[in-house]
Write a structure and sequence with these properties.
This protein is mainly alpha-helical. The chain is built from 9 helices and no strands.
C-alpha cells in the first residue's frame, strides 16, 4: 500500500482550520464585549459558544487543535530521529526537539505555564511588559536551547532552516511577544476589555500558525531527506 502526502494541501487545510477557529473566537469576543452581555449571559447558546471556541479558555476546541498540531510536530521529529539513526546520522538533536514539543503540547493542554505566573510575579515583582511573568523561565530555557542547537540548525538545508526560523519567529512572537504586550495592557486597563481580547486572540492564532508552519517544514525535510523511505507493517518472523 502506498501513501502519498501532499504537504501543500496539509498546510492549506491547517490554515483553513485556523481560520475557522479564528472566526469562531471572534464571535465569542463579540458576545463577551457586547453591550448586552448581561442578557447574553442568560442565554445557553452564547455561553456554549464561548466555552467551546474562546481561545482564552482551557479544554476547548482551540486548545485541543493547538495541542494536536504540536503533538504532530513531536511525532514528525521522532520519525526524523528514527530515520536519521537508521542511516547512521546524528539523531539526538531530533529526539531532544521531539521531547520539547511533547512538553509544549502538554503545556497547551493543562496550562503548566500558568502555575508559574504567581510565583514569578512575587519573586521578581514584575510590571509593564513583564506583568505576566510566567515566561521568564521559558525565555531562559529558550536561550539555552538556542545556544545548544545553533550549530545543528546551521547544518540544515537553507530552505528548511528558513522555514524553521519563520515558524519559530511566528510562534515566539505570539507566545511571548503578544503576551508581553497583553500583560502591559492588562496591568493598566484590566483583562475585561475588547483590546485585550483581540490581543490574546492574535497571540493564540500566531502560536497556531507557527506550529502549522513548523509541521509543513518537517514534512518538507522528510520529503527531502528520506525520498526512498517506506513503511513496513508486520512481524519480524520470516
Amino acid at each position: 500500500m502506498k501513501f502519498q502526502v501532499r504537504k501543500s494541501k496539509i498546510l492549506r487545510n491547517l490554515f483553513i482550520a485556523i481560520g475557522l477557529l479564528a472566526v469562531g473566537n471572534l464571535i465569542t469576543v463579540y458576545f463577551l464585549n457586547n453591550a448586552l452581555v448581561n442578557v447574553l449571559e442568560l442565554s445557553k447558546v452564547p455561553r456554549l459558544l464561548v466555552k467551546l471556541l474562546n481561545v482564552n479558555l482551557e479544554a476547548n476546541l482551540p486548545t485541543y487543535f493547538s495541542a494536536l498540531v504540536l503533538l504532530g510536530d513531536a511525532i514528525l521529529l521522532a520519525f526524523i530521529a528514527y530515520g536519521s539513526k537508521a542511516i547512521g546520522e546524528r539523531f539526538w538533536h531530533w529526539i531532544g526537539l521531539s521531547a520539547i514539543f511533547v512538553f509544549i503540547s502538554l503545556d497547551e493542554m493543562i496550562q503548566i505555564h500558568e502555575q508559574l505566573r504567581a510565583p514569578m510575579e512575587a519573586l521578581f515583582n514584575t510590571s509593564g511588559l513583564l506583568y505576566f511573568a510566567w515566561f521568564i523561565p521559558y525565555i531562559a530555557i529558550m536561550l539555552v536551547v538556542g545556544i545548544a542547537y545553533f550549530k545543528f540548525m546551521m547544518s540544515l538545508p537553507k530552505q528548511i532552516l528558513k522555514l524553521f526560523i519563520l515558524a519559530g519567529v511566528v510562534f515566539v512572537f505570539g507566545a511571548v511577544g503578544m503576551e508581553m504586550l497583553g500583560g502591559m495592557h492588562a496591568e493598566i486597563n484590566g483583562e475585561d476589555t475588547l483590546t485585550y481580547a483581540l490581543m490574546y486572540s492574535f497571540e493564540e492564532f500566531l502560536e497556531m500558525s507557527g506550529a502549522a508552519i513548523f509541521f509543513y517544514a518537517l514534512i518538507s525535510y522528510i520529503e527531502m531527506k528520506f525520498k526512498t523511505a517506506t513503511f513496513v507493517f508486520g512481524s519480524n518472523d520470516a
